Periplasmic binding protein-like domain-containing protein (Bifidobacterium cebidarum), 398 residues
Amino acid sequence: MAEQQRKATDRVRLADVADAAGVAISTVSRVFSNPDRVNFQTVEQVREVAERLGYRPNPRKRRGETAQSQPNQFVHRDVAASPSVQPVHSLQPTYASDPAAQSRVTTNGGVIALVVKDTTDGVSSQILKGAQITAMESGSAVGLIEPGQSQQRTQQLLMHLIGKVDGVILATDSPGIDFIRDYAKRVPLVVLNRPVDSVPSVVPDPRIGVVRALSMLRRYHHTAVTYVSGSTSWANQSRWSCLHDIGQRMGLRMNHIGPVRPSVEGGYQAALALENSKPTAVITYNDLIAAGIVLRLTADGVRVPEDVSVIGFDNTLIAPVVTPPITSIRIPRDLLGQAAVRLLLGRESGAVRNPADAQLMDQLKELGVRNEDEQSANVTLVDTSIIVRRSVGERRAA
């Protein structure tokens, strides 16, 4: 009886089809917008459920979206690596929980909420910049929201957004996995910086940046590298696992200390431990820790890079202003934001590797260095790179 009523009122949502078929909302969206990206059996199952429930995509709205959206291109250039072209493709209807929301996002100036933990770290502004570029191409807007560190407050704020925004980009680790999965059934959602099963996720792939950083250290005759952990997060584990795996394959001894606070003060704390162990090369969880290490070592008479080379992660604003400026593994946060918006709009990620990075990635795969998330249909990987500055040098004489 409930199914008959939904057919009569034509109010069956993508979320209803996803629940009945036992798949993610994004999978249902792909079935109707880009079925070649979905397993054949899944396509047949979803279409059968949609037919039974009476769900029908709105062809008029799809035509309106196609007419409004024209292909564009922009070029991103990394000053310390080869240029890479990131084409922006205009494809298919939007990813959303119902056809009405699809139309709002692309043609009626829809609003996307970018939810972050901290707006003062320089990271959120980079994500916002990239997200705005792609959203504006579809007449949409991105708003930045900072609920702070509290998980309860973050969840309350997210619940408050239901019905008020057309999509959410979640760039904070405060909500738990169960909450995120349930929330994704109610609001079009993309998660940044950690993969969540059955929910569209955009995460950095550290492999290219890490292999270039370690290769540089090995060229300078370093034989051991110490990693300074800054948290117990997925991002920290991803970075350390990648460093450990690639470093061992290069014949480097990989050590680990921490975690310390992911701040300049945490770097001060780490520097004391490093002075006792006297490593020649250090890679840190983020640039803030690296900056704290450089400042404290310099104050204690330890020279960077003559006595110890230091590499950070993230390439945030602090890296180039420390003396000496800090070499950093660059996470292109703007591209994370762009990829997240494209997912909400039902588009391909559009990323194209430059030839040098593509060749390097092929070599890593031949060596068995893989990312466990690269086979997941719900995860979009964004490559890292290396920004070389003056904090890395020749290994000191024994």
